[in-house]
UniProtKB/TrEMBL annotation, chain A:
GO terms for biological process: protein transport. Its cofactor is Mg(2+). Keywords: GTP-binding, Hydrolase, Lipoprotein, Magnesium, Metal-binding, Nucleotide-binding, Prenylation, Protein transport, Transport. InterPro entries: P-loop_NTPase, Small_GTP-bd, Small_GTPase, Small_GTPase_Rab. One of its GO terms (molecular function) is GTP binding. It catalyses: GTP + H2O = GDP + phosphate + H(+). The keyword Magnesium applies. This is small monomeric GTPase. It is an enzyme of class 3 (hydrolase). Its EC number is 3.6.5.2.
TrEMBL record, chain B:
One of its GO terms (molecular function) is GTPase activator activity. The keyword Cell inner membrane does not apply. SUPFAM superfamilies: Ypt/Rab-GAP domain of gyp1p (SSF47923). PROSITE patterns: TBC_RABGAP (PS50086). Transmembrane segments: none annotated. Residues 71-262 form the Rab-GAP TBC domain. Signal peptide: none annotated. It holds the Pfam family RabGAP-TBC. This is Growth hormone-regulated TBC protein 1.
Amino acid sequence: MALTNSNGVVRSTSVTGEFYDFACKVMLIGDSGVGKTCLLVRFKDGAFLSGSFISTVGIDFRNKIVDVEGTKVKLQIWDTAGQERFRSVTHAYYRDAHALLLLFDVTNRHSFENIRAWVSEIHEYAKDDVVVMLLGNKCDMTSERCVKREEAEKLAKDNKIPYMETSAKSGLNVDLAFLAVAKDLQVKKTRRPNDPKFSVLEFVDQQKQVPSKCC
Amino acid sequence: MSASNSNDLHRSEIDAYGFKHGEDFDYDSYEEFMSRYLSILARRASKWNKLLSGSGSVKRSSKVKRYVRKGIPNEHRGEMWMCVSKAKKLMDSNEGLYQRLLGQELDPSIQSEIDIDLHRTFPENIYFCNDAAASGKQDSLRNVLKAFANHNPEIGYCQGLNYVVAMLLIVLKDEEKSFFLLEKLTKQILVGYYSKNLRGLNVDQMVLGELVKLRNPNIASHMENKMAPWSLVCMKWFVCLYLDILPIETTLRIWDCLFYEGPKILFRVALTLVLQNEESILTARDTSQIVERFRKVKSQPLNMDCHTFMQKVFLDSQPLKMATIDKLRSECEQNL
């Protein structure tokens, strides 16, 4: 079935019968235990059930359709196992990903130190125009934090990627991370030559909320 | 919960292994199945009691193989797994090994990989949920994984083993036995599955693809057209040995065969799941739809009825020779 939306795009139907204009593939990557599945569940269902999460084996995915200024974007979100030995399996999926959300845990120094290695894997396996976003998750755990926001911001800047702190528990910036990706795709697909360019980096900088410091 | 109503027994939210039923648990189908299965269990139990009277152990024979395929009763399951896999023999000839391994310090990076997963292993199980400190099962899980990593530096810790060991602990109720059964499982039954390059696992997923190609070329080519590699669908089947893929009772019946017959059963079950979902695979329009449809196998009533399911496995998958698997393995190995 084909319908045309207000932006003049031909619409298709998803599995569940919902209409969407574009589909894009988003991958969640990062060390084991940084909260990839929690972030996905928070975005998909708006829930965070402490103590109910299981470690991901292999690769899993969920769909969610979001509305970007009247355009329906279907996000196909791939959740991956973080353990190093499973990376050879997940690499294969990098190349047709539109966006990669790279997570570390602000309470786990090691997961932050591994970000450089993750970035070089992205360069090796993903498309050149892939959207990458660095997310410092678990920012609600202020007393256990051991990665400063400034150092993460610097690392992101050095790699020319946006940085945000997220909390799958409180929901801070979770929707924004996914919406920014959807928005980027929507602009890429519908932009006319004279329209202004869209920068994920600027968009995120304007919209993101900064977690409140511990008192 | 009222004890006067016999239905409450079946309506219990927690099964015999400590798992809380999920929200989508189909109590009606389950009750319907259990009412039939209870008499089968009673018959199997009396046959096994007769078989084990006297020696308490079994030797390999076509009769024992048939008995195992029809299900080892719960009260004998742990001991029989130890016996038919020869893990018991291994344990008896390595007295003190487990305690020694526990006493050794583990590489801190491996220890932290294990620790990250302890709280994420069966949180819906009363023995492993995070407020179950009293039961000590999480500590046992840590111990077995630690001893195993110390003994197998080439494997260390592989995600997925947390679930496998947790299930062994539930059935065997003993750390040392679980350790030696895990040794047999990883060294003789599923060689290379959990190694750092996952080679054995990757090869066997390719072998499954080849077997599907032989049995049902339509499904194989549809998967290929939709760019759905078998690893996307079946990695967890092979890593977790159908835990969290199929209902627990069905999984345990598969494990009965796994410890007696070896890895063949994993392929036979996989083939059954693929073939029984032929229509839904062939009508799937993209990769994600294929994955979604396979995810539904857990709640398919057919798969809850473990007895009929296992009968179907041995019928549907047709005789499968280990020689065929070995031949395909060596071909796939070269393509890897």
